[in-house]
Amino acid sequence: MKCEILCVGTELLLGDTLNTNSQFLAKELSFLGIGVFHQSVVGDNPERVRESLKVAFDRSDMVITTGGLGPTKDDLTKEECAKFFNKKLILNEEALSRLKAIFIKRGFELSESNIKQAYLPEGCIPMQNNNGTAPGCIITDNNKTLIMLPGPPKEVYPMFKESVVPYLKTLSNDVFVSKVLRVFGIGESNAADRISNLLDNENPTVAPYAKDNEVIFRITAKCKNEDEAAILIKPIEQEIREKLGDCIYGEGEKTLEYVVGELLVNNNLTISAAESCTGGLVSGKLINYPGISSAFLEGAVTYTNEAKMKRLNVKKETLDKYGAVSEQTAKEMAEGIAKAAGTDIGVSTTGIAGPGGGSDEKPVGLVYIGIYYNNETYVKKLNLSGSREKIRNRAVMEVLDMIRRKIS
Amino acid sequence: MKCEILCVGTELLLGDTLNTNSQFLAKELSFLGIGVFHQSVVGDNPERVRESLKVAFDRSDMVITTGGLGPTKDDLTKEECAKFFNKKLILNEEALSRLKAIFIKRGFELSESNIKQAYLPEGCIPMQNNNGTAPGCIITDNNKTLIMLPGPPKEVYPMFKESVVPYLKTLSNDVFVSKVLRVFGIGESNAADRISNLLDNENPTVAPYAKDNEVIFRITAKCKNEDEAAILIKPIEQEIREKLGDCIYGEGEKTLEYVVGELLVNNNLTISAAESCTGGLVSGKLINYPGISSAFLEGAVTYTNEAKMKRLNVKKETLDKYGAVSEQTAKEMAEGIAKAAGTDIGVSTTGIAGPGGGSDEKPVGLVYIGIYYNNETYVKKLNLSGSREKIRNRAVMEVLDMIRRKIS
């Protein structure tokens, strides 16, 4: 089956928005064994959407669109696709009642243009949207399949997984089974070098992906059933685990903060965080773990020296002698917050996130992260690069990884 | 002139690489007033590259390709493009001598496949590569223009600016000027409804974009020069400002946290934050503003009742009587942190981010946000929906907007 991706949206066409949907869909389709041969982007223009559908269906059996399902006038994908297949748009009652529920909850009036979103082409398979207002749908006609998805990635990803994947699986006899290993503390090329012998493997395949601050290896087996896939995947997984050791922090969808949250809760450990350069993001990440309330007791964002002294008992002499960005300050911050909050673990961050504030001695990107645990304090010095945001996010991940390594 | 972008590369087609070249080129071309009507991606496959060139030139005057100029077998863009225009590939002496210099510097031998890179279609305008080994080129024939660029973004960006921009400027008399207005506190469809009369405007055009938690309106004028564009944009901007009022928080690239940071610093105001459900993210956002250190004095992540009492002086009776997620607690938190940190402003968040912890009376998504300023405390009740992350991020933006409205 030949499939292609058609993203509709003037914001993509003009480059206002980076097209992450295409990448997501291409990757997911290739895992499912569905060949993608073209990706296209077209603006919110009826004529060009129509032309693009024609070009796409002349060469492919299946087209997946994203975007253009919103409530405004320039959202016209659904209308043009329905015309293309000679289908009328009819009101989908479930979509309407979902829309109403969302608007009642928000306390807004449901307008005419909103109700437009609840109309779908006759005879389609509707796909309800659990993360937004526009439903998607699947039209099949004459051996051609059109799958319409909304535009925002946070709606596209779950709708694809919840509704499109189950549909696509009915089309093929093969199953594709994947196992994801998540890696932190080693760069992509370094990690890939260590397992380079596996990267040309045919079945299962092994593919590395660099995500913000981490590397993910996906092992994918193509088989007749899940049991067969598990047998194929096992030795490959074992080899990767041997070669990457404790840099592998988890599996599947579990993020680093999730793994750390789970470790803290399961080990009955309490934690507190004292943050300077990361400004609350370490606490914010820890609190992403839904069950964290028994473990995370307190966070302090001590951006100023005064706050470091008052809240964390960092000594004035330490700040005077070594500066706020120093191993000594990071140590006293971690110890100070653990004592103030009465927790088993205290973590700290202090650094120069930039763009200003750097010097030859203490350049932008210099960050100290500290952890107090079991009456010992350990401080790690990081030399990070990139934007203010990148430096702070990387520092947060380093703190999480430091906690993981200390308590696992 | 109709232009389109064709990116060649199997790594893009399968989603292994995010296609940032398309976005870069689209944005740059739109600034130059060159209409981009299609973007496509195709793999390193001769037949499909040929087909894609045909589709592209059937509907466009100019095609810009990226990728497929490398030394390996699967790099075939140049060969297929030359065939498409019936041009022979001939050795470009400057490209060869540049290649030789690079290889001598690296201490490598120049192989046959490397030399292949120095061949260019006869009669083309060569574009030398100052950041890599593959030169690009421009072919013009029969009112059709093909611009070939390498694949790596770090080669594409400078080659475009150094060689393509000067060429393109010779082709057009128009400039496109855009103005972006940023909106918070009103949904996309509601905002679009209010200015629906403008959405069909032809010059300037007005286009709405929903971004995470906010709406952006872009006004774009096509003119002979920037002055003329400014005159066209002004009344449209004025009308949008009248209709959306103080929901417009800023212009251009300035985010809500940037606007708030700027307001705080320019007004010499100090601020502190007490966070429960947002767990540090309000502090984290405020600290995104590079100059914030004079304004942001302290943050407290008080996830537990104990921390709320100890750090913020929230009364035990308040927590017992109304609960941690209540208007009263939000009020005492905002006042408590302002007093403890000695700041002009104190903000607070307390709510149920889910997925668990909700009840009929206090459902998931119920969040109270508070602000203490000028001896007054104001608390706003929010009913949010979506995932834990979505609820928390939305609450953070609501706090920022509340600060903006109080102090501007």
Q: What are the segments of chain A in which pLDDT stays under 50 over at least 5 consecutive residues?
A: none
Biggest chain pair interface = A-B, 86 and 85 residues
The first-level CATH class of the largest domain in chain A is given as Alpha Beta
CATH topology of the largest domain in chain A: Molybdenum Cofactor Biosythetic Enzyme, Chain A
Number of helices of chain A: 15
Radius of gyration of chain A: 26 Å
Helix content of chain A: 40-55%
For the structure shown, list the relevant keywords.
17 strands; 408 residues; six-stranded mixed sheet; Molybdenum Cofactor Biosythetic Enzyme, Chain A; alpha/beta; homodimer; Alpha-Beta Plaits; five-stranded mixed sheet; globular; Maf protein; 26% strand
How would you sum up this structure, described in words?
The structure is a homodimer of 408-residue chains. Chain A has helices at 10-13, 20-31, 46-59, 77-84, 93-106, 112-115, 153-169, 188-194, 226-244, 256-266, 281-286, 305-312, 316-322, 327-341, 388-407, and strands spanning 2-8, 35-42, 62-66, 89-91, 119-121, 125-127, 136-141, 144-149, 175-183, 205-211, 214-223, 248-251, 271-275, 296-301, 345-351, 366-373, 376-383. The longest helix of chain A has 20 residues, at 388-407. Chain A has three domains: 2-169, MoaB/Mog-like domain (Molybdenum Cofactor Biosythetic Enzyme, Chain A, 3-Layer(aba) Sandwich); 175-251, Alpha-Beta Plaits, CATH 3.30.70.2860; 256-407, Maf protein. Chain A has a six-stranded mixed β-sheet, sandwiched between helices. In chain A, α2 packs parallel to α7, α3 crosses α4 (77-84) and α10 runs parallel beside α15. Chain A has 15 helices and 17 strands. Chains A and B meet through α1, α2, β2, α3 and α5 of A and α2, β2, α3, α8 and β10 of B.
